[in-house]
Amino acid sequence: MEYIEIIVAGIFVNNILLAQFLGNCPFLGTSKKMETALGMGMAVIFVLVMAGTITWMIYNWLLIPYKLEFLRTIAFILVIASLVQFVEMFLRKSVPALYSGLGIFLPLITTNCAVFGACVLNTDKELTFMPALVTSFAYAVGFALALVLFAGVRERILLARVPKPLQDTSIALVTAGVISLSFYAFRGMV
Amino acid sequence: MIEAVLIMLGIGATCGIVLSVASKVFYVWEDPRISQVEYFMAGANCGGCGYAGCSAAANAVVAGKAAPSVCIVAGPEAALEIAGIMGVDPGTAEPLLSHNECLGGHRAADKYYYDGAQTCAALASLHGGRRVCVVGCLGMGDCIRSCKFDAIHMGPDGYPVVDETKCVGCGACETACPKSILTVRTMSQRLLHFNELDDALAPCQQTCPAEINIPQYIDQIRKGDYAGAVNTIRERNPLLLTCGRVCPHPCESYCRRGLEDEAVSINQLKRFVADWEMNSGQRLPIPCAPDTGKKVAVIGGGPAGVSCAYFLRRLGHTVSIFEAMPRLGGITRYGIPEYRLPDQVLDWEIQGILDLGVEAYTNHILGRDFTIQSLREEGYEAIFLGIGAWKDYALGVPGEDLKGCWKGIEFLSKVAGAPDKKVPVGKRAAVVGGGNSAIDCVRTLLRLGVEEVYIVYRRTRKEMPANEVEIVAAEHEGVKFQFLAAPVRVIGDDNGHVTGLEYLTMELGEPDASGRRRPVPVEGSETVLPVDMLITAIGQQPEIDFLEKEAEKDNLAITRWNTFDNDPELLQTSLPYVFTGGDAATGPSLVVDAIGGGRRAARSIHQYLTGEEIKTSPKSLLKKHIPESLFKTVPGVIKKPRTPMPELPVADRITSMVEVDLVISEKDAVHESHRCLHCCRLCYDPEVPETPPEAQVVAQG
After folding, report:
1. For residue B56, is pLDDT > 70?
2. What is the SS3 assignment for B672?
3. Backbone angle region of B127, left / alpha / beta, with phi > 0 → left and psi within -120 to 50 → alpha
4. How far is CA B153 from the centre of its chain?
């Protein structure tokens, strides 16, 4: 029951993109086509679960015992960047199909603040191991869901009459705001 | 503090070690050339080459999918370096250029009105776009926005215009266009494109066996760009002087103007620009792709062989033509008489093709001087067999081998081969047959001084397969026609000389398989036509005696008409490296068919040489028509007289071999080009009645 609550909260209530506004660059950059949005979503789910797990271990087993919490940011960045590289090499060798499917989105995640943000939030809330892992997963699914929703909307916007000054990125930001408002309705659910 | 440093060092070291171990454990072999190639690229990841970043482009270069010159930023020096790494000639890649295929734009009628959709992609995804034409330009300019090089702008007529000097051939516009208006192709790819169901094709271009872009060259003539018109024709037909003279122009039968008025005189316009080039004193340059180093042998220097050699040469292959006769030209030289196609004109035309770097060996007879096998041993990787159809059919009646009896091609080639274009003839001659060769024979006989010339044909004038203009010209020149007559016997005197042709009168019965009414003999109607010369011109078939000396003769399938069995789309014979075309593939047919066949075979040979699968597009039209492009009526046509064919008066032409048909004047050419409706698949330019000056005043007032 506790996990279901975490998952609902992670995906809808505290959606990393639409409620916490993290990871906006890929949100705008990879949402022009449904195909790329799906690719990016999958890559984020994969990496965020891994990153959430490992950063939790580093924070709780290494930094806290030595009272070095102030090193959190730099250590996490280092770990996430290395992790993405590692995952890329691993996938290329072992799961070439997934590797070519994810394509250039895998290295892009190195600089995705949603991943870093989720890890930091987990530690801020002082979650225990399993809840942290499930939260990471829920955040990632929320990210993918928001991205796919947004890509669908943007594809439809192509067919709409948009005033010249608002075309492309401007209308995308307005739309993002409206979607974000609609996610506001989940507030207080959990 | 020390702890912090140690921990960071620890994490850093762990990450480093894990990654270095991982890079060993998860090592995937990558062609070392990829990183070398990438080193020479600009590193800007601009995507201008059409690949997702420099590393993707480097991958494509190493995989052979992109040319060393793919990077548009790094320039030619980098292309040289990359070519060095790859060990290829940097020039092997031709530049890509974008071309607009749609002539319609705003003149195409609208089917839907869209409220608010701003892009072509949006229009295309909602019921396919606003135009009636399913392939035409939507005019919202997705291509213009996609072009990073500012090379495309929207023309005044509602379709995009490409600035070729700025285009780098990146392919962004082709990807952006939801139709296929903009196609990014190399010259070779354009030369090898055949009409397809989705192309923007006017009915005339669908009909032309050589698939010449007729509306485009007529438009260029209208604008005074004669050189452009010649180049447009040359993309599809290297023998424009020849075709401009002898082509029976099947295209004109499908001319839309012809439905309401007389058809545009397309072929006279072709001849006009072709003669313009010849008389201008200099040849227009013909670009060829860089050498590929592949050798192809073309057997037979007729229209099919010359056309095939021309296209293969332009694709960069090394071509040698082997010709049995003393000079090139095949049936256009030895079958078409001087008065229709002067030697001088043919020489000029063929020299232009040889100047591209095609080698020709004349007096080389297949089966005597060389064989297909010996050519293979000399390093020719593919062989084009375009030996034509030179073996005359015989009548199969008694007395056919008497003195004074000739066969059609035998007679015509003898005349054409004689230095003064003369052979000894009789006083009264009969020619059996109703085709173009028969007409060529009678008109030649008249010019050689024969007093009375008869055509003996077993059906009526209506069924004669010869071109109408040729029949009319023969009538003007005084040829006598004996219709509904089937020869049964040739009568000779004691010296073995022909003295007469005995024939049976026929009457037309039920239609046969060809739709023509079958001639049925009338009992007891034998008549003798007194002649001292007889020519049989009832058709030909390829001469295939050379097969006796071929090692693989059993593998080369022959049809029952002695032509080489082939796939009409691919023209590959049952021997994979032997291709065919022209009369040797189809049986006796038009020059323009042979030219189209030569190009078709060139495409298959090119695919064979480059190791591709030999294939055609599933949407290939192959002389079929696009049903929606054929109209029943054409509104908006104002009748304007067709330019008549200028020709020498009968009295002036009948005594010599001087060319009969003359070229039209520039004024007439301009008039005729303005008769063209500039059709495309569905749309065309309807004509507006000229308002008389008084009416204009009223309108203004």
Report:
1. yes
2. helix
3. left
4. 31
| Distance in angstroms (rounded) separating the CA atoms of residues A183 and A17 | 10
- The candidate with the shortest Cα–Cα distance to B342, out of B332, B351, B352, is B332
Residue ranges of domains in chain A: 35-184
- At position B203, the amino acid (one-letter code) is P
Partner-chain residue, chosen from B12, B119, B122, that has the shortest CB–CB distance to A78: B12
pLDDT (tens digit per residue) in B508-539: 888 877 777 888 888 888 889 999 999 999 98
* Subunit contact B3:A162, Cβ cutoff 8 A: no
Tokens found for residue A157: 């916007």
Residues of chain B found within 8 Å of residue A58, distances taken between Cβ atoms:
11
CB contact at 8 A, B575 and B217: no
Contact A74 B8 (CB under 8 A): yes
- Pick from B7, B19, B119: which is nearest to A68 by CB? B7
Burial pattern A94-106, b for ≥16 Cβ within 10 A else e, equals: eeeeebeebeebb
**Tokens standing for B677?**
């409706």
pTM, whole model, 2 decimals? 0.73
Q: Is the pLDDT of residue B695 over 60?
A: no
Q: How far apart are alpha carbons B649 and B453 in whole angstroms?
A: 19
Inspect the interface and report whether the beta carbons of B22 and A89 lie closer than 8 Å.
yes
State the pairing for strand pair B382-385/B428-432.
unpaired
Query: Among partner residues A74, A75, A161, which is closest to B115 by beta-carbon distance?
Result: A161
Tell which residue, B646, B595, B593, B660, has the closest CA to residue B341. B660
B167 annotated as ligand-binding: yes
Nearest to B195, CA basis, from B636, B652, B629: B629
